[in-house]
Amino acid sequence: MARAGLTADRLTQAAAELADEVGFENVTVSALARHFGVKDASLYSHIRNAHDLRVRLAVLALAELADQVSDALAGRSGKDALVAFANAYRSYALAHPGRYAAMQMALDPDTAATSAAGKHAEMTRAILRGYDLWEPDQTDAVRLLHSTFHGYVSLERAGAFHSHPRGVEASWIRTLDALDSLLRAWPVG
Amino acid sequence: MARAGLTADRLTQAAAELADEVGFENVTVSALARHFGVKDASLYSHIRNAHDLRVRLAVLALAELADQVSDALAGRSGKDALVAFANAYRSYALAHPGRYAAMQMALDPDTAATSAAGKHAEMTRAILRGYDLWEPDQTDAVRLLHSTFHGYVSLERAGAFHSHPRGVEASWIRTLDALDSLLRAWPVG
DNA sequence: AGGCTTACCTAGAGGTCCTAGGCAAATCAT
DNA sequence: ATGATTTGCCTAGGACCTCTAGGTAAGCCT
């Protein structure tokens, strides 16, 4: 009987595609096994358990997003960088809903440390170099930006903005304008 | 055999308590049935299915949060109102993690319309009456505030802010300062 | 070619979701 | 009060998911 040639990486990759197709909550060991035409039990040679699979998926998504944001950021600064970051972030989330949902998993500190999560914070900080901000305001601003981006795409995806005719795209652009203006005139404690 | 006296409301209430204890994703029909000492099948006289139960929980949480925010908002305006709203929102989310997670479910438009979701938008709009904002900027600002509040508490709960020593509480206060100053000097298109 | 590692298997236990159909408790009509 | 109706909870059981223990055979290494 020919082997399917499974590895943890191939499983994670397939899980990512599955997540975007059927939703993160429907990424199951069984569905993944079906996809490869093997029995459920076979997957447990490569992953510890279902949670482990989802964590791997989250780490993959974090790394992918970090790459795309990094590309978008290259050579830009100031508001240009802010907008590029934000749009790359939002595009990824909307194009890859399952992966984005995976990213919201609470990772244990160890996993988070070795994942690309640090790169995200670092890149957000890079944006702020175009503005006149220093610690601890810089950290506060990083948190504010991250919160707003994440909050916006989460709510957008949950349909929270559909109840009003104002275009979601238009609000997004204005939100970025507002954040830029806020960073330029950051209130001094 | 004595009856347990179940109703959809009692189930929903118990589900809310269960959610805060063991996490929203662990609110199952089975766990709820165990809690009441009845068989799983018995619950299906009161709820349509597991999804229906979770939607009821989300609607309950939305209404509770709307009430608490409404109380906090009473008699305040301007930055006072902004801070009161934000703190009530965040307190609820941190005190009731399971209910808060439930609120993030994508509700179908019908359910969303009859839920307290509209009251939230309305209350956020009420805050903006203390600032000089008109449509469509008002809607953009409502979305920005909602995004930032939601994003902040989501990320805080996911542990995204733990990697840095800066206090989460301090950043929160500065975030509110920043939003206030942003609303006072909203950039004109 | 023989031996070792390991990818994948079967078998099975335990959990969740949900339906069909049954009995008995509560409620209502007379 | 008694019979009729409604309904709350039951048993039984199927479908799917998670995960373990232990076995077979494919592919690598010497």
List the helices and strands and how they pair.
2 copies of one chain form a homodimer.
Chain A: H1 8-22, H2 29-36, H3 40-43, H4 50-73, H5 78-95, H6 97-103, H7 109-114, H8 117-128, H9 137-158, H10 168-184
Helix pairs in contact in A: 1-4, 1-6, 4-5, 4-6, 4-8, 5-6, 5-9, 8-9, 9-10
Chain A binds a DNA duplex (30 and 30 nucleotides) through residues 1-6, 28-31, 38-42, 44-46, 49-50.
Order of helices and strands of chain A: HHHHHHHHHH
Share of helical residues of chain A: over 70%
Shape call of chain A: elongated
Query: What integer value in Å does the Rg of chain A equal?
Result: 19 Å
Our estimate of the beta-strand percent of chain A is: under 5%
User: Main β-sheet of chain A, in a few words?
Assistant: none
Keywords (chains A, B): DNA-binding, Transcription, Transcription regulation
Organism (chains A, B): Lentzea miocenica
Protein name (chains A, B): WHG domain-containing protein
InterPro entries (chains A, B): Homeodomain-like_sf (IPR009057), HTH_TetR (IPR001647), MT1864/Rv1816-like_C (IPR025996), Tet_transcr_reg_TetR-rel_C_sf (IPR036271)
